């Protein structure tokens, strides 16, 4: 049995796959889904509760379950600034490196940009003599006396973590390793120590320094959490989803927390791509709307990977899925700003206390409360009827806001939903129109517990006529854990003009990275014969700053591929020489995807068809169980489609068909 677990800000989702031995070719694997409220103070409690409620506690204790986990511990700590106290160790003269950053501004024409607090207080930024130059040669050796002074300072400051990031350590890491070994042997206590040459062995000292600091400040939180979870689930194997879309053993993940910043959302993209491929949909725009945030991405045949991602105010140069995140979810709080205008998010009610309608002490109005008042959520059908919602609590939460806006409660609720929709539509424009893609050439795909309530409105806002809601959309990120390959992404900076490359030296670097990746996979029990290897390189025109990642074939081929990619991305190509910046290797062991039961073979719910009156809709609205939809019987909106882990609001003017695998294919009437 394989259990995918996605811990979100409000709910923790579970998908259990039980592979059927001796099954017929047309039989599917057994898939069971479940949801519980998250426990942000100790996320493993919600996971263990879900395991117990699914009747898996004994199987886990007997080692019969492989657990693959997507965690938001690192993400939330980074966004909320709740990492541990961290010292930053660098070369003499560079202690202000993280504070200075880059000259780029978040808003070009904002003349009064508010000051940003430094990521590391200056007294925790420490310097050591010793220098490696740009050729990887030692200009100045490490001073043992200075190292002793560094240890004494750290013993006084007592930081929980130490980030070591020296100039040109990606060419020669001996100074970083020497400092780390000295501190491990000398300090009076045992902080979490990490080196930039292990985290991100690439050029750009600011980005490398930030990645190293993030890995250090999040490391103890992630490490302690994963160790607690592993201890509670032994002897069953525990793996963790990385931001790049591949999994890593929990023991190794504890040392690489910076690689887990998009751990959960990466699983959703993997499952969305899998479901779309089954339905013959190669081009998708996705939005994952959960309780706290919404993640949007564009899939043009494959999942995009970027090294230019951001988490909050910080650049994150480690490989991660190309995704844009905003603070708009079901738990996003609505408020009135100083100018008397309605605002939604980014603050969220989370899982505790949660939206007011959850009846757990929440009193502030949220998007979920608004959807309940509008009738788009049914109070007795939430989570398959296992959790009762309180409409009166939702009305009481929105009433003060409606009074301030001089609106009725239903009108205010509609305004909250419409404003949340506009936030998400703006995010979708960022990953499509702003990058030169026409949204009409894609199908909008939603997942997450709240996505189906907003998909029609978002498709209309993007002038899109087609949408898709995958089967098990409410827990799709957890399902993606079952599909993710075991993977390592490795890189090394190597700067040279393409015509000047030495093939033998290039092959040596590729081979060295591959050997490291294969060795790490073998530690997880994956034989090298089962691994797939992909080579690529970051290229740019000489004199440029930004680069493009191109799959390696030959020097002549990557040059032509780069020209083509540059012209597609920026609208032109140059006669300027091409420069190699970074060498990359991906080593992965893919898994066989699950076999899904076709919709025609599922058991209808047997529920009697009912109708409801919804605000703003002149006719009664049918309430349909998703299991009762047939592939050859389209349903026209308005309609509410219920399932155990999500609700879909089919707006007037839309119709839905169910494909052979149970995916809902939406079409706007012409």
In order across it, which strands form the biggest sheet? 19-14-13-22-23-34-33-30
**Spans where pLDDT lies below 50 across 5 or more residues:** none
How would you name the oligomeric state of the polypeptide chains in this document?
Answer: single chain
Number-wise, the strands total 34
| Amount of beta strand | 25-35%
Rg calculated over all Cα atoms:
26 Å
The chain-level structural class is alpha+beta
What is the overall shape? globular
> On the 0-100 scale, what is the average pLDDT?
88
Number of helices, where a helix is a run of at least 4 consecutive DSSP H or I residues: 17
**End-to-end Cα distance:** 46 Å
Helix coverage percent: 25-40%
Largest sheet: 8 strands, mixed
Fold and architecture overview:
The protein is an alpha+beta fold and 670 residues long. Among the domains are: 2-78 and 223-263, Nucleotidyltransferase, domain 5; 83-218; 485-589, Dna Ligase, domain 1, CATH 3.30.1490; 599-668, no CATH class. The chain is built from 17 helices and 34 strands. It has an eight-stranded mixed sheet with strand order 19-14-13-22-23-34-33-30, sandwiched between helices. Strands 3-2-1-4-11-12 form a six-stranded mixed sheet, with helices on both faces. A four-stranded parallel sheet has the order 6-5-9-10. Helix 14 links the parallel strand 22 and strand 23. Helix 1 (43-53) crosses helix 8 and helix 10 (263-278) crosses helix 15. The chain is globular.
